[in-house]
Amino acid sequence: MKKYFAELVGTFFLVFFGVGTAVVAGDKVGIVGIAFAFGLGLVAAAYGIGPISGCHINPAVSLGVFVAGRLKIADLIGYWVGQFAGAILAAWVVSLIAAGVSSGYSIAASGLGQNGWGPATRAATISLPPSPMSLWPRCSSLSSFSAPRRRAHRAASQDW
Fold this sequence. Notes:
By secondary structure, this protein is mainly alpha-helical. The chain has a domain of 106 residues: Glycerol uptake facilitator protein (Up-down Bundle). It is built from six helices and no strands.
């Protein structure tokens, strides 16, 4: 139960800082400020709850850990409940804060960011093809999963 509550707290911090910055001060800090808010929220969560639950704070990460065989189905469901509850709670708190800001944020009038594609954001989404270095972390993390099997295979083949 402790690790599920830790996931709730970590997801709350990530959503509260990241989404809160985007909603309340997004026009002032810009895309870089919002990215820093998400990054610092993630780092704070990693240091705060990492030793307790592993700091998944993303249902997709929990699913990946489950598929890799490192998480039981009961724990997966507990992690998901904590993550969804933390995100919903943080979104509710952000909406309360945003409604009290001088500009008077209204979900009915402003939406939830689903219509944010304007000329400035379209230009920011154009990216270059990925470089080979961007694939390195993915390949190295995948090879670490198979490393124990390779070592066992090498050891067995050297018994001549």
